[in-house]
Amino acid sequence: MLSKNIINTILIICCPFIVLLALGTWQLFRLNWKNNIIAKMDMPVVKMKGGNIDDFAYRKIVVEGVLTSIDLYIFAGMNSYYILTPMLLSSGEYILINKGLINKKQMRVNIKPKKIIINGMLYCDSYKNKLIKNKAKDDVWPWLDAESISKDMGVSFNRCVVWAADKLDDNIAPATLSKPRNYHMQYMITWYSLALIWLIVCYVKNKSNFAVDPKHHKST
Length: 220
What we know:
This protein is 31% helix and 25% strand. It is an alpha/beta fold. The chain has a domain at 45-164: CATH 2.40.50. The mean pLDDT is 82.
């Protein structure tokens, strides 16, 4: 039967090891997720039709519909704003088109509704802050979240947003959706290495605790 001292030593060793191992495994899942996103962004352009729009997430797409005259503004930092316009698809669904970046002096750009074909990339991971409500002030939202914008305006928008690659207005510079930074391999190696180092250090410092006392060893 293990002594209380040995049990306590095992617990002290195992708890940090399990935490470090879990952190490394979590980074492994994050690595696969990021690699999947990057792979989708490198795939050929596809025309987005009906069905589940989420299936085209992070794909280069071509979308056709009626671009409305409504302008929505999302704060992008340093007196700049993303300007978004709802597009009515043939399915009867509205989706937000991120036309690009403008500065404060260029706000209130008016564009008449028109049927248009847009090249862009579909982004379906809107930022959500559960602690602070994404409430518009002076028609400007703090961050991009299609769901909260829908509730605020009383109009149902698809949660995905098309980042237009085309220049849709002379006063608007298209905002490129860049590939996500992927450092999860380094993070994973770091956590797994720390877990291994922890085991080695604990073994060196506590190996005497696990030594078998010859006096209590019974030979058969």
